[in-house]
Task: inverse folding
């Protein structure tokens, strides 16, 4: 068990305390108080170490290299943030969240990409955003349910605590795969519908201009942490609609023209 008292927490190193808190939250379906850990993580490397430790302790992945990931950033000048996605929270559309623990029910509409071949560390090191397209064999629409194991509101959490918590990932819904093709993403239309609310429509709003642009950074991260990335590994690449709010019992639907449609019943 990972449950901690204040006295046991104070005797642990800062990173170990964060790991224990997140393990306890996931294992016991409770929310952890982030306030004692505001300064516990000093770097992105520390946050990624917490990700790996939590995944290892709770056995979140069936494979040695996690098969589903999220990656993204606010623009091309920023470092991309990455996280492996627990196997149990990856669902095929049409999906039902059922009793899956969700605190926030925030929604992102995304394009997911699938590798068509194994990628070694040396291959990843040589990649450019242009040559990375050659590695992709398929794409699909995805919905990410954004959530956190921390008790505090998402907007109040320090960035490194979000990164440590699998970049506040809740679950991922994937649509049907279609062959990958390079396209004019600046003209790509995306529509998200949540419950009875008004549809949110966006055109060409991906933060990087091209979802595949992040592949070199993502693959270097994964190969450095886990080794060769196998064919069939999936990465979802960032929201086209920002962060939308949903509620329990809402039906969430996302459609990208020419790519597909996915849905999840909350």
Result:
């Amino acid at each position: 068990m990972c449950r901690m008292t204040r006295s046991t927490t104070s005797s642990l190193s800062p990173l170990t305390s964060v790991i224990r808190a997140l393990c306890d939250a996931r294992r016991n379906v409770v929310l952890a108080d982030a306030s004692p850990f505001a300064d516990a993580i000093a770097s992105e490397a520390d946050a990624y170490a917490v990700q790996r430790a939590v995944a290892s302790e709770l056995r979140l992945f069936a494979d040695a290299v996690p098969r589903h990931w999220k990656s993204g950033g606010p623009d091309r000048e920023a470092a991309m943030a990455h996280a492996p996605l627990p196997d149990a929270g990856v669902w095929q559309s049409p999906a039902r969240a059922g009793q899956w623990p969700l605190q926030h029910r925030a929604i992102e509409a995304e394009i997911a990409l699938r590798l068509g071949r194994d990628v070694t560390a040396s291959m990843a090191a040589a990649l450019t955003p242009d040559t990375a397209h050659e590695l992709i064999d398929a794409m699909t629409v995805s919905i990410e349910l954004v959530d956190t194991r921390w008790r505090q509101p998402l907007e109040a959490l320090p960035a490194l605590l979000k990164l440590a918590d699998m970049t506040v990932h809740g679950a991922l819904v994937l649509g049907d795969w279609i062959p990958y093709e390079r396209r004019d993403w600046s003209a790509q239309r995306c529509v998200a519908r949540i419950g009875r609310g008004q549809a949110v429509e966006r055109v060409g709003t991906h933060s990087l201009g091209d979802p595949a642009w992040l592949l070199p950074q993502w693959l270097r991260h994964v190969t450095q942490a886990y080794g060769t990335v196998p064919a069939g590994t999936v990465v979802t690449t960032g929201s086209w609609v920002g962060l939308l709010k949903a509620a329990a019992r809402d039906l969430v639907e996302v459609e990208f023209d020419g790519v597909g449609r996915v849905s999840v019943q909350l």
About this structure: The radius of gyration is 18 Å.
